[in-house]
Amino acid sequence: MVMRDRYIYIVLTKTKTAVAKIIRFISKKTYSHASLAFDEMLSDMYSFSRDYSRIPIPAHFNIENINTAVFGRYDNIPCEVYRIPVTEEQLVETQELIEHFLSNRKHYRYDLAALLLMGLNIPYQGKDKFVCSVWVGFVLGKSGIEHNIKKHPSLVEPEDLRNVSGAELIYEGNLKEYQDHISSKKDNSFTFLKEAIA
Q: Which among 135, 177, 168 is positioned nearest to 154, based on CA atoms?
């Protein structure tokens, strides 16, 4: 039996930027952005996104934070957070891929053409370009993590990522309240453990 005692996290978000609203209008879906994270607190998230919070381009591979850049502009950001069990090998492979994208950040760009064609259900993948959700699907596939998404890789949308094998919804609500929610759960678990031992 393969041991899966590690986790990665997929974060689906809905912001009020003009681009996000256009994406949701075209897709008719709730969420317009997808990110990956390695720790439950989502200290750092990774995705393809705008470089500057106020303008949509330029856009490259970026480290995202709940309280800065675009996420820092809003008090309420609807989100879903999924926890995915992975093997140690899959986790290492994912981390190495993230390091590759970080080291070659300026080499990769956001794929605006693919975004437009996705709305028409036309597969298209520009060279060294990604849309956020397509990139997440790419990383999962390259890391050997089953995602069960039955469509062309260039058409993967944020909400398709709910179908990743073993994905568990651990939070739905305001992204800005997520870390307090997790901290509270940990505090309650610690209190319960202390009472059980006493």
A: 135
Name the token pair of 178: 């997520």
Average pLDDT in the 153-159 region? 95
Give pairs for 159-162: CB < 8 Å, separation 24+: 159/12, 159/29, 159/30, 159/31, 160/133, 161/10, 161/12, 161/34, 161/82, 161/133, 161/136, 161/137, 162/12, 162/80, 162/82
Domain ranges within the chain, ordered by starting residue: 6-197
Fold of 6-197: endopeptidase fold (from Nostoc punctiforme) (3.90.1720)
Q: What is the pLDDT of residue 193?
A: 44
Residue of 44, 41, 23 whose CA lies nearest to 102: 44
Whole-structure pTM over 0.85, yes or no?
Answer: yes
Q: Beta partners for 140?
A: none
Q: Are strands 129-130 and 33-37 parallel, antiparallel or unpaired?
A: unpaired
The C-alpha atoms of residue 7 and residue 27 are separated, in whole angstroms, by 29
Residue whose structure tokens are 């069990």: 85
According to DSSP, the residues that pair with 55 across neighbouring strands are 52
Question: Exposed, middle or buried: residue 174 (CB in 10 Å: 0-12, 13-18, 19+)?
Answer: middle
